[in-house]
């Protein structure tokens, strides 16, 4: 009896295990088609994904032997990619989100010999090309951002976007906006990372060239960094940041701009596109970011939306063919428009809608300096989370600028040493 | 050879054959366990060993290169202020949730151990949240506590009050997380205590009643001591769950503001993926494993000693 029971238990264990293993088995395509897996890093409701889906469907109808599996990705997109890379099983194509060279370059196929490569925007070369002239992603657009302004909210405060000419006028505008009951600066909590954007946007105006160069040598300028965080503390103490900051998301930021509840945002222009999806008539623009140290105002830019193909992918040829399709002028134009940014290829023109006047005024003349994203250019790889959480602590009143700066300095030292 | 001797030898041979067959059968039955053992080795033992090995490297979590750094990551743990403060949060989550779940779980078990109409429905409703994913539960509570459009703030405003940012401070976030976790898993404690109550022979309480003990004395001197095994099981399960808390924190606060509501588990995640310090993150994981193991052993030993003393 005991033996029978033991046999039954063992058989049951084996059966359950077999069932588990069979459940783990992946399904194989029997259609004979090549399926390219594409990690887009886009949320399911993003304007870019909608355009990308449309273009991909056209590609698939013109190339019946290829299927593109567009994967969405939210805040954990980078974790997903890192896990796939660690497992040596990357998707065929993935969005590099600013890191096509420094982080993902070793895993991506070089693309400088592709037919569209001659149109690569030279403004992106410093961050996307290595010393040998190789680059590893199709630059769909070129990030050029400034201080996003809501002209309706400014008008109610008796101001216009043209009044934001320097740091003092920016602070005066924030005060005037707050007096009307609107929120001067809209931000989203730690889950979104917008607190880190503030650091990225303000840092080029907080340090001079020598100080910035010292970061590259592994010397952290704590005084300058603390000044940036002190700005956040000032904004918090004056009530110039949205009170729902901790629970707000990027979508809430877009809504507050769309509904004329907030005056300013420090973010990429995709936020404007997102806001316009809620209120197409919203009067949004961007102006150069005023420099904290009183020097010239500037724009922030660099690699934004870019897609690379796995160097060792089984279907590299098809992946390159698909990227070439995305690079076609009409397709790249549509994609760039969806992000509210200028195209990443020089043979493409995009109608940037509500932001077109801002581009014509601030970007096309080429007179306003374009500064790189601070964390990508001057901080070691892996610092972003520290930048976000420390700024977040200051905004939430949980940490002083000095304490948060110390944490950033510690992590800077550790990661710089590891990078060495 | 006599007939008897032949019979004896035949019987002996038969027993040997039977034993051999039995041994063979036993071995073949054991073989059926092999796939499960392989799965256990692959998904539990191997990750544990490789996690420990990883904690002695400087791996960034994705690139092919990694270097041996000896105990550097463990030395860093000892001087890391963030880890220290997050460890404090982790103890609050573990001990706070455990305490709340014991009190409420036992209370519910005592209430629902009586013959009441609808008690089975009540038991099912209280246990139901245990079956819900903590991510779903966290999202539900997020919608309740969020500043704009949050149900709680809508209620506050309807009653003439001001909106509150419930999750914007460390104290508010930690309290909310402890409560949400306790409410979700109080059903587990309730079920364990119900099982414990039903295992107590009614003769003990009847004897106490005959001795003139009132309800409180019967509970304190008879029921509670006899619930020691259930208490030990519930405390240890809840403690382990609380110390490993991850999902609810991730959904409700993302560990913020800053890292003020992070637990060691959420810090392990951000250190591994966002800070790209997989080696250091693995060291945190090993430390958490050791802490949970030590606390569990201590709690188990203390509860068992108390039980033995009472016997």
TrEMBL record, chain A:
UniProt keyword Cell membrane present: yes
InterPro entries for this protein: Bact_solute-bd_prot1 (IPR050490), SBP (IPR006059)
Domain of life (superkingdom): Bacteria
SUPFAM superfamilies, per database record: Periplasmic binding protein-like II
Record's keyword terms, sorted: Cell membrane, Lipoprotein, Membrane, Palmitate, Signal
Signal sequence, start to end: 1-27
Name of the protein this chain belongs to: Raffinose/stachyose/melibiose transport system substrate-binding protein
Protein species of origin: Diaminobutyricimonas aerilata
TrEMBL record, chain B:
Species per Swiss-Prot/TrEMBL record: Diaminobutyricimonas aerilata
Domain ABC transmembrane type-1: 87-299
CDD domains assigned to the protein according to its UniProt record, in alphabetical order: TM_PBP2
One of the GO BP terms on file: transmembrane transport
Topology with respect to the bilayer: Multi-pass membrane protein
Subcellular locations according to the entry: Cell membrane
Family of the protein in this entry: Belongs to the binding-protein-dependent transport system permease family.
Record SUPFAM superfamilies: MalF N-terminal region-like, MetI-like
Transmembrane spans: 29-49, 91-112, 124-145, 165-195, 219-240, 280-303
Keyword field: Cell membrane, Membrane, Transmembrane, Transmembrane helix, Transport
Protein name: Raffinose/stachyose/melibiose transport system permease protein
UniProt xrefs under Pfam families: BPD_transp_1 (PF00528)
A cellular component annotation (GO) from this entry: plasma membrane
Major location (coarse): membrane
